[in-house]
Amino acid sequence: MLSRGARNVVLLSRSGRVDGNVAKLIEEAHAINSQVFVHACDVSDKEQVQNLVFKGISKLPPVRGLIHGAMVLDVSPFVPLAVILLTSPRMFCSRR
C-alpha cells in the first residue's frame, strides 16, 4: 500500500508489538514520507474497536481502505476446519 501512494497506514494486532518486520516497515515508510501507526486492538472485541475508531485514530486522515487479515486457527482432527472458521469470533465480526 505504501508503494502505491498510501501515506498513513494503521496496523492492528492484539499485542500492538513493534518488532522485526513491523519495525522495518516503519523505517521504510519514513524514508518515503509515509507513516505507519501500530495499535493494540482485538477486532473481535466491539469495545476495543470502538475505542480505536473514536479515540485511537480520530486524529488521522479519513479511512480510505481496509484490509482485514485476522485469523485464529485451532485445528482438531475431530472437528472439521470449516466449522472452526465459521464459528470463531473473528469470522463473526468480519461478516458484520
Feature tags:
single chain, 96 residues, alpha+beta, 4 helices
Structure summarized in a few sentences:
With 96 residues, this protein is an alpha+beta fold.
How would you portray this structure in words?
The chain has helices at 20-31, 46-56, 81-87, 89-95; strands at residues 8-13, 35-40. A two-stranded parallel sheet has the order 1-2. Helices cover 39% and strands 12% of the residues. It is globular, with a radius of gyration of 16 Å. It has one domain. It has four helices and two strands, in the order βαβααα. It starts with 7 loop residues before the first strand and ends with a helix.
Supply the number of helical segments: 4
Measured on Cα atoms, how large is the radius of gyration?
Answer: 16 Å
What general form does the structure show?
globular
Distance between the termini: 25 Å
Indicate how many domains the architecture comprises: 1
User: What assembly state would you assign to the polypeptide chains in this entry?
Assistant: single chain
